[in-house]
Amino acid sequence: MQPEELALSPVRALANPEWFEALFRDHYPRLVGLLTHLTGDRGQAEEIAADAFSKLARRWALLASREDVAAWVYRVATNAGLDALRANSRRRRKEDAAGAERLRMHEEPGALEEIMRRERAVRVREVLSTLKPRNAQLLLLRTGGMAYREIARSLGVQPSSVGTLLARAEREFERRYRAKHGGEL
Amino acid sequence: MTQCWQEGELRAYLDGELPAGDMQRLRAHLPECTECGGLYAELEQRAEWVASALGALPVQEPVVPMPRLPHRSAAGRRWAGAAIALAASLALALVLLPKASEKRVVLAPLVQSTPPAVPTALPPVTVKPAIIRRVLPRKKAVPSKLKPQVDYFVALDNEPVEAGVVVRVALDGGRVPADVVVGTDGQPHAIRLVSSGVGER
After folding, report:
1. Cβ atoms of residues B102 and A67 within 8 Å
2. Taking CB atoms and an 8 Å limit, are A20 and B71 in contact across chains?
3. Do A40 and B64 touch (CB under 8 A)?
4. What predicted TM-score, i.e. pTM, was given to this entire model?
5. pLDDT for the residue numbered A65
6. What CA–CA distance (Å, rounded) separates A29 from B60?
């Protein structure tokens, strides 16, 4: 059974105890990658991803009537990641500032580029946290190199609509970023 | 002129995500349509800008799915908790047991160097009432010669002493030490006997 078939057929999976494990193995790495991008914290990303699957495990009987369970997991995990991002924003800004100060003090090779990258990452996360969760998911999944078919499966949409959704998400991200931080990256 | 394309299709074309036939038709359409060409250029520029912005986020490391599966039953979770508690107890025991074993090694029975004497005949058993006496702690022995212990000077005259030196002398044939205050006039003005502890203070 292919992972996409498993992800799209929870009813069939009720009779197949290996369905959940296959779903987990197929989507957990991508989900952790997405959340790491979003939060910048690998440990927190793993925690959020595991928690999303745990919620699914408790509700899978309810989800049996739904069309796409993977989309549900992605949505729950991304929402939790965005919540964590908003909650951590103040602490993360302090940590990034402290890291930048350490780099300035030690004057390591490439320190200036690293400082600029960290500051840009803070701005990008701030803007991502203000987007609709699905738009943030789209941008992060596409940045992670996921194909349209996989993105569609993860978001529970048709593959033919991914281009339209992606164009809208990019336009919204750029508009919000420029409004808050100007055009310079 | 061929048909125009939607924004979503242009965006998918940018990523090479259209079906092969659509890719060819759109490629042929773009040079001849300024509207689609302009929209495509705008989408391309924005996509590059967004990718550059998101490129600031940390690079994703490969993630290995955890072997732990979240579809445990409630009973399984309880057993997992018990297993964790047992593991913690074993870890604590591993920390503590080596110390206990060391004590056992230290308290191992000693090897006797000489065999115990074997009595040839048992003496008659007689029972005597035990007399219990209270043992008082011994007082510290104080040399009788130094009593009373004097640690102050006794004036030898009525003249006040403004300046002088203290000279250690030996009285009574050298057996009794004493300190004498000698004034600037060279005359003794005060004296004190020195016990064993006075001179050392």
Report:
1. no
2. yes
3. no
4. 0.54
5. 56
6. 10
